Amino acid sequence: MRSLTSVKRLSLCLYGSMLQHRIDFCQLVHLELCGGGPKWWNLLNWMLKSSPKLQVLKLNKCKERWFCSIEPNIEDRWVQPSSVPECLLFHLNTFVWKYYNGREEEKKLMTYILRNARCLKTATFSALEFESKEKATRKLKELVSLPRASSSCKLILV
């Protein structure tokens, strides 16, 4: 795992609890992360904190169907970090969330990112593929009213 400290691009698809090593990704600028498993929120928070130069963050649906079908545990909650990660303050300029569901924890995370990502230029969201067009549009439009740290940030709803 130590050899990962110098990677610039990384794609992870694993349970949050499976990544126990505390590594700093000091060169990482592009991260794709599949979410949905137990402790996924912890993994995301840890990756943001450990990647001070991160410029691009993509949250994807896992390609493994069995993994994606796991519903988040009701006790599995996103906890706002005690300090804003350096990447949000100085570097993150592109954020993509495929299959955004609009659950309460997802809204909390989005509020936090939009409120703290000072350099964010674009935030792109797409809804779950099985939702009706009207329901998906409503969920995505809720994001438009969220306050943003970057006055130049454009929200793109696809």
Write the layout of secondary structure elements.
Layout: E1 9-12, E2 30-34, H1 40-50, E3 56-60, H2 65-68, H3 86-90, E4 94-100, H4 104-116, E5 122-127, H5 133-144, E6 154-157
Parallel strand pairs: 1-2, 2-3, 3-4, 4-5, 5-6
Order of helices and strands: EEHEHHEHEHE
Assembly type of the shown chains?
A: single chain
Number of helices: 5
Rounded to the nearest angstrom, the radius of gyration is 15 Å
The SS-based structural class is: alpha/beta
Domain FBD: 86-158
Protein name: FBD-associated F-box protein At3g50710
InterPro entries: FBD, FBL13/AtMIF1-like
Detailed description of the structure:
Strand 5, helix 5 and strand 6 form a beta-alpha-beta unit. Strands 1-2-3-4-5-6 form a 6-stranded parallel β-sheet, covered by helices on one side. With 158 residues, the chain is an alpha/beta fold. It is built from 5 helices and 6 strands. Helices cover 28% and strands 20% of the residues. The termini are far apart. It has helices spanning 40-50, 65-68, 86-90, 104-116, 133-144; strands spanning 9-12, 30-34, 56-60, 94-100, 122-127, 154-157. Residues 65-70 have low confidence and may be disordered. Among the domains are: 23-89, no CATH class; 120-158, no CATH class. InterPro entries: FBD, FBL13/AtMIF1-like. This is FBD-associated F-box protein At3g50710. Residues 86-158 form the FBD domain.
Considering the chains and any ligands shown, give keywords for the structure.
20% strand; 158 residues; 6-stranded parallel β-sheet; alpha/beta; 6 strands; 28% helix
